[in-house]
Amino acid sequence: MTGRIKLLRTSTFRLAALYLILFAVSVSALLGYVYWNTAVLLERQTDETIRAEVQALADQYSQRGLNGIIDTIRRRSDDDSGAVYLLAAPSGLRIAGNMTDLPAIPRGEANWIEFPIDVQNGAARENHIARAFYTTLAGGFELVVGRDVEALRQFANIIRQTIFYALAIALVLGLGGGLLMSRNFLRRVDAITEASRTIMAGNMAGRMPVKGSGDELDRLALALNEMLDQIESLMAAMKEVSSNVAHDLKTPLTRIKARVEAALRSGGEADYRSALENTVDESDRLLDTFNALLSIARAEAGQARSGLVAIDASQIIADVVELYEPMAEEEGGTLTCTAPEGLMVTGDRQLLAQAMTNLLDNALKYGAPEGEKPDITITGAIDGDKVVITVADHGQGIPEEDRSRVTERFVRLDASRTKPGNGLGLSLVSGVMKLHKGTLLLEDNAPGLKASLVLPVWRED
Ligand SMILES: Nc1ncnc2c1ncn2[C@@H]1O[C@H](COP(=O)(O)OP(=O)(O)OP(=O)(O)O)[C@@H](O)[C@H]1O
Ligand SMILES: [Mg+2]
């Protein structure tokens, strides 16, 4: 497609053309109205005047005879009013008036006629147009009464020309403006097309050009850029997950292989048994890791968002507490819960329960100095338009500089290496929060950790 045709096919140009047509039609209507009201009406008025004068002269003739009309015509001819008169005998001979002879006209019946006249204007003689009414009086006398309409005609001409030029200018400007606008529009669309081509070609960091004017193209580009950000972060997460999986599953698998090989070499029944038992344990742990990773990936991808429903978080808290209270007591600790009913959020019951479980699990594991008993509080409350669920303990807590790091996969702090775990618990919590458009807040409980799930309150709409 050549550039020009492409330009004419843009929606901007079509819109501009449509407006141009509408504009031209209304301008023509307006100017036509002006033309009618000036030129046409003025000419009509002249005709009326001439007709009235003819009538007056005819009356004069019938009342005062030939002398009367000759008298009047002579008087009026002398005025320099642009009026033309001629009274001729039936033979065609001029009797009175300021015209020398009858113009070449069809004789016999009353009629409107137009003819050129010579006019003395200062020293120069000008050729003007006269419009006149020709009629025959009783006795065969011929009467012509008219006006010099040159000025009127010139005026009408000027108006007609003005209308023509105004329309022409409007059309040229409109067409030019339309082309200019579409060219600008097209250039930006082309830039967006070009940008998407380079991105498709593999430059994932590329983005749509944004002009900063906030117009519809900018908003489109911004939306596309947001989408690209999302795609990029999903791809990065996927890459990270696969490399994590490759790295963290390789170690236990290598371990299993080494044990089994050692057992096979030694050949003892007891060795076989212990190697097999060990393999079962390791496999269980591998499966756990796998499941946790899959849950995190699923939550982070945000696929499950359509499955979110309005639920009362206080019920989930109650369920989780019921499960964990015996465990806390078993260790001689306490688990206190304060959560009023009606903590409505949009969420997935199972995932939210999993997130709270992971926080409680951490509080039980790390929530008390070595040798002491964990005392854990879980609270639920509404704070403005947020539902905040907090699990607090009195352990070592997480140092400020590690708080953002611990939500990454497989991150475990050195202080807690003695306890079992994969370093996936908080990753899942933060994934679940992402899915719920909420955040995981880690704060100092002085001493201990205060981990809060901050979720938007469910709203009916
Ligand atoms: N309540 C807490 N007090 C002190 N440190 C904590 C607490 N919760 C988490 N941490 C630290 O953050 C790290 C990451 O926690 P996370 O729950 O992600 O993994 P984990 O508990 O080690 O393993 P997993 O939860 O997968 O069994 C922990 O290893 C620990 O060092
Ligand atoms: Mg944990």
Question: Could you list some keywords that capture this structure?
Answer:
single chain, 461 residues, alpha+beta, Beta-Lactamase, Helix Hairpins, Heat Shock Protein 90, 3 domains, 5-stranded antiparallel sheet, 5-stranded mixed sheet, 8 helices, 18% strand, rod-shaped, binds adenosine-5'-triphosphate, binds magnesium ion
What does this structure look like?
The chain has 461 residues and is α+β, with helices and mostly antiparallel strands. It folds into three domains: 11-157, Beta-Lactamase (2-Layer Sandwich); 216-301, Helix Hairpins (Orthogonal Bundle), CATH 1.10.287; 306-456, Histidine kinase-like ATPase, C-terminal domain (Heat Shock Protein 90). The chain has eight helices and twelve strands. The chain has helices spanning 3-8, 11-78, 150-200, 216-266, 269-301, 313-330, 349-366, 425-435; strands at residues 83-88, 94-97, 111-121, 124-136, 142-148, 309-312, 334-338, 344-347, 375-383, 386-392, 439-444, 449-456. The strands form three sheets. The protein has a five-stranded antiparallel beta sheet. It has a five-stranded mixed beta sheet with strand order 7-9-10-12-11, with helices on one face. α5 (269-301) runs parallel beside α8 (425-435). Residues 358, 362-363, 366-367, 393, 395-398, 406, 411-413, 416, 421-427, 449 line the site of adenosine-5'-triphosphate (ATP).
